[in-house]
TrEMBL record:
<dbReference type="InterPro" id="IPR021133">
    <property type="entry name" value="HEAT_type_2"/>
</dbReference>
<dbReference type="Pfam" id="PF02985">
    <property type="entry name" value="HEAT"/>
</dbReference>
<comment type="subunit">
    <text>Serine/threonine-protein phosphatase 4 (PP4) occurs in different assemblies of the catalytic and one or more regulatory subunits. Component of the PP4 complex PPP4C-PPP4R1. Interacts with HDAC3.</text>
</comment>
<feature type="repeat" description="HEAT">
    <location>
        <begin position="82"/>
        <end position="121"/>
    </location>
</feature>
<protein>
    <recommendedName>
        <fullName>Serine/threonine-protein phosphatase 4 regulatory subunit 1</fullName>
    </recommendedName>
</protein>
<comment type="function">
    <text>Regulatory subunit of serine/threonine-protein phosphatase 4. May play a role in regulation of cell division in renal glomeruli. The PPP4C-PPP4R1 PP4 complex may play a role in dephosphorylation and regulation of HDAC3. Plays a role in the inhibition of TNF-induced NF-kappa-B activation by regulating the dephosphorylation of TRAF2.</text>
</comment>
<keyword id="KW-0677">Repeat</keyword>
<dbReference type="InterPro" id="IPR011989">
    <property type="entry name" value="ARM-like"/>
</dbReference>
<feature type="compositionally biased region" description="Low complexity">
    <location>
        <begin position="302"/>
        <end position="319"/>
    </location>
</feature>
<dbReference type="InterPro" id="IPR051023">
    <property type="entry name" value="PP2A_Regulatory_Subunit_A"/>
</dbReference>
<feature type="repeat" description="HEAT">
    <location>
        <begin position="162"/>
        <end position="200"/>
    </location>
</feature>
<dbReference type="GO" id="GO:0005737">
    <property type="term" value="C:cytoplasm"/>
</dbReference>
<feature type="region of interest" description="Disordered">
    <location>
        <begin position="274"/>
        <end position="322"/>
    </location>
</feature>
<keyword id="KW-0597">Phosphoprotein</keyword>
<dbReference type="InterPro" id="IPR016024">
    <property type="entry name" value="ARM-type_fold"/>
</dbReference>
<dbReference type="InterPro" id="IPR000357">
    <property type="entry name" value="HEAT"/>
</dbReference>
<dbReference type="GO" id="GO:0019888">
    <property type="term" value="F:protein phosphatase regulator activity"/>
</dbReference>
């Protein structure tokens, strides 16, 4: 108890770090010291929750939660000693930091203490803190933990007491509070009735999706799929896990600052030709207002061009408006690489599609001609001392130099192509360099308004969106002649998205997540979040409404970002289970086939669940994939041994889906190839694969004979010791797992196996000794009366017991049946060796 009055805070903090161990000691010695923890130690922990030193408070909070998690505090002590103190610490006159921390502990304790204590002691104060007008930090803590409180107190208390407070928090004037509400929306929805969910929460969620704050919209869209999943019927409800932290496998964010501009650049750790689909990452605008929110936005999520929201937003500017004095801030814009384009399509007059109201249009219009460029440069030159302005002037100057030459080069290029009879259909992705440079420079000069940057998806190029299909590109040229047909088609398409399972407005917002403009106005990775939650949405809608999601799924499957396709590849087997065999064959198999030829990062998602997907297909369709399995042996990086190890594990499962003949014809070569892999982990998994193949072929004597003969030839007689060791491994697994009968083993494998007793490599002889002593003898192989190889087996074992290598001798001697070896066999072996 003396530690209670120690003046040094580090001593008090150290005591709190040891509390957990002391509590365990008291629990183990409770008969001797029955009230030691409750009477002496727990009061110290509770008192330190209000300590003046921040470190002491943090360690005491951690210690309290650990004690509660492991149930080291009696329930009566929780109710009488802990809860009243926490409620007092959240009183209106408490210290601001202490109040916020105490409320956070209350929220974390609620699931541990249960519904009764939470309703009686915590719920009134929680409702009061949700309306704390003085401290938004407290409201933010309440909003972040609102879902947990709802799940503890149940539906009745949630609808009567908590929902009114939740509505207030969702309209809070601080964007951080509203963002926290969006993140916990699924948990709140799960605690309410279907009627409340449909009539009230849906409209509330739509308001968060259209929130003025970009960060709130981002969180809402990330939670949209999870919220939709709560509309599923109870017998098929899908509870989606929160989206994991964003991991950048090929890059990291490095912050830099220059005159108040926070710049985050994605620096790839490796550069490969097939990584062109990596996202570009946006920048933060100049002149960021200081935020009073204690938590900064999650910068692990790639940002596109938008202003971070201040804590108090009553005077904040709308996110898609840029102050006039900052229109030419060079940090607003990306220098995109020169793209491969069809120059003819760029020069031909045509109507742009609605999804590409773009920089392309601004670059090709005369609005930024020579005269306009000169005026822009003249207006900026008085501020040339500013590095940002200077960078913009450099861009505009380059555009001015290229403006005159560009038009002449384009005309000359067109004349040359026409004289050669070349049309743009012959070269849909033109590679002529000089005119393209002119277009690129003019595009950079034309990036002076925000709307220009929402032109194309993902990679902010100034050319037609590469994600558009060829058919849509062709329709673009004939838009004037088919307006009536397009209107009819749009009406039909809209009608095809109708359903009655969830509010249509929610589904429309979910389908809009693949809109390229969303990537620029909400989140650069919004398509990935859409792909992540798609199985849950599909489960909620049911296979009868798959037509609502089909186009969205196809769009995601062809997304430029490999992370989006990877997400779909990892869940395609789940979607196939939801849709059934007919829809899977029609809509998922083509996408599955495209994933098989994708990057390794995408293929591994297909590979990890190859068996789960193929077992859902019709046998005839499934058999076609036998021809493609060998393609998994080829990877982008030969060092990716885990890819081959996963293939071996999947092949073990696939054995049950195919006939013995198919296994022999198609899987046998793969198995033998994997058995010779240079990575031991791959080889060990492959030995298991070969032994299971023996089991599969055991019912067909002809196939088994051929298979075992090849096994002996390739491995037992291999010039490499690793091959001979592999043969011993396979024999050991085949015996231990009962993959082959003793008669078949004796006929085909025993004689070659015993020949390894004279192998020059000790490691091979060690494994042979283990196989005989620990596998054959444990199955009482010696007692098999019909075994004609018993004498040879006994002699081999005795020889191994007399081996010069001590490890061989040890493993040959350790077995339960060694005393059964006859003295004649021992003497015969002694004379031989």
């Amino acid at each position: 108890i003396g530690f209670l009055f120690v003046s040094e805070p580090t001593v008090r903090a150290e005591l709190m770090e040891q509390v957990h161990h002391i509590a365990i000691f008291c629990q183990e010695n409770r008969p001797s010291i029955p009230f030691a923890f409750s009477k002496y130690l727990l009061p110290i922990v509770v008192r330190y929750l209000a300590d003046q030193n921040n470190q002491v408070r943090k360690t005491s909070q951690t210690a309290l939660l650990e004690l509660l998690e492991q149930e080291l505090i009696e329930r009566g002590d929780v109710e009488t000693q802990v809860c009243p103190v926490l409620v007092d610490l959240t009183a209106p006159d408490s210290n601001d930091d202490v109040k916020t921390e105490a409320m956070a502990i209350i929220c974390k304790m609620a699931p541990m203490v249960g519904k009764d204590i939470t309703e009686r002691l915590f719920l009134p104060r929680f409702c009061e803190m949700c309306c704390d007008c003085r401290m938004f930090h407290v409201r933010k803590v309440c909003a972040a933990n609102f879902g947990e409180i709802c799940s503890v107190v149940g539906g009745e208390a949630t609808e009567e007491l908590l929902l009114p407070r939740f509505f207030q928090l969702c309209s809070d004037n601080v964007w951080g509070v509203r963002k926290a509400c969006a993140e916990c929306f699924m948990s709140v929805s799960s605690a309410t009735s279907q009627e409340i969910r449909r009539t009230k929460l849906s409209s509330l969620f739509i308001s968060l999706i259209s929130d003025p704050s970009r960060w709130v919209r981002q969180a809402a869209f990330q939670s949209l799929g999870q919220f939709i999943s709560t509309f599923a019927s109870p017998n098929r409800r899908v509870q989606l896990c929160p989206f994991p932290e964003q991991v950048q496998p090929f890059g990291s964010f490095q912050p830099a600052s220059q005159k108040g501009v926070a710049l985050f650049l994605l620096t790839p750790e490796r550069s490969e030709e097939r990584r062109d689909s990596l996202d570009t990452v946006g920048t933060l605008e100049k002149g960021i207002a200081p935020s009073t929110d204690t938590e900064s936005p999650d910068l692990s999520v790639p940002l596109s061009i938008s202003s971070p929201e201040p804590a108090e937003e009553s005077s904040a500017q709308p996110p898609d408006r840029v102050p006039e004095q900052e229109l030419y801030n060079s940090f607003h814009f990306w220098r995109t690489p020169i793209a491969q384009i069809d120059l003819d399509m760029e020069l031909l007059p045509q109507e742009e599609p609605a999804s590409c109201v773009s920089v392309q249009a601004k670059a090709s219009t005369p609005a930024l001609g020579r005269k306009q460029l000169e005026e822009l440069i003249e207006n900026l030159e008085p501020h040339i001392d500013d590095p940002d302005v200077k960078a913009q002037v450099d861009v505009l100057t380059a555009a001015l130099r290229a403006a005159t030459l560009d038009s002449h080069l384009e005309d000359a290029f067109l004349e040359a192509r026409e004289s050669q009879g070349i049309h743009h259909q012959d070269n849909p992705f033109g590679v002529h360099q000089t005119p393209r440079i002119g277009h690129e420079v003019r595009a950079l000069a034309g990036r002076t308004v925000r709307v220009g940057l929402s032109a194309c998806p993902r990679r902010l190029t100034c050319f037609p969106c590469v994600c558009q299909s060829r058919s849509s590109s062709l329709r673009m040229h004939h838009s004037d002649d088919s307006d009536q047909g397009d209107c009819f088609g749009q009406a039909e398409e809209k009608k095809s998205k109708l359903q009655d399972v969830i509010p249509q407005a929610l589904l429309d917002q979910y389908l809009s997540m693949t809109d390229p403009s969303r990537a620029q106005t909400v989140d650069m990775e919004i398509a990935k979040h859409c792909a992540y939650s798609l199985p849950g949405v599909a489960m909620t809608l049911g296979r009868q409404n798959w037509h609502c999601l089909r186009d969205t799924y196809e769009t995601l499957a062809s997304d430029m970002q490999w992370k989006v396709r990877r997400t779909l590849a990892f869940s395609i087997h789940e979607l196939a289970l939801i849709l059934g065999d007919q829809l899977t064959a029609a809509d998922l198999v083509p996408i599955f086939n495209s994933f098989l030829k994708d990057l390794d990062e995408v293929r591994v998602g297909v590979l990890k669940h190859l068996y789960d997907f193929l077992k859902l297909l019709h046998p005839e369709t499934r058999r076609k994939y036998l021809y493609q399995l060998q393609e998994f042996l080829v990877t982008d990086n030969s060092r990716n041994w885990r890819f081959r190890s996963e293939l071996a594990e999947q092949l073990v499962l696939l054995l049950e889906l195919y006939s013995g003949q198919d296994v022999y014809d198609y899987l046998r070569p793969l198995a033998f190839s994997l058995c010779t892999d240079r990575v031991s982990s791959v080889r060990w998994t492959s030995y298991k694969l070969v032994s299971e193949m023996i089991r599969k072929l055991a019912s067909c004597q002809a196939l088994l004979t051929d298979f075992l003969s090849e096994l002996v030839e390739k491995f037992c007689h291999s010039p490499k010791w690793s091959g001979r060791q592999a043969f011993a491994f396979v024999c050991q697994l085949a015996i231990e797992d009962d993959c082959v009968s003793l008669e078949q083993f004796s006929e085909h494998l025993l004689a070659p196996l015993l020949q390894l007793a004279s192998d020059p490599v000790a490691n091979v002889r060690v494994l042979l000794a283990k196989t005989i002593s620990q596998s054959l003898l444990e199955r009482e192989y010696f007692l098999h009366s019909a075994n004609s190889h018993q004498e040879a087996l006994e002699q081999t074992l005795v020889a191994l017991q007399m081996d010069l290598d001590k490890d061989v001798k040890y493993f040959a001697s350790v077995h339960p049946g060694s005393t059964r070896i006859s003295e004649d066999a021992m003497s015969t072996t002694s004379s031989t060796y």
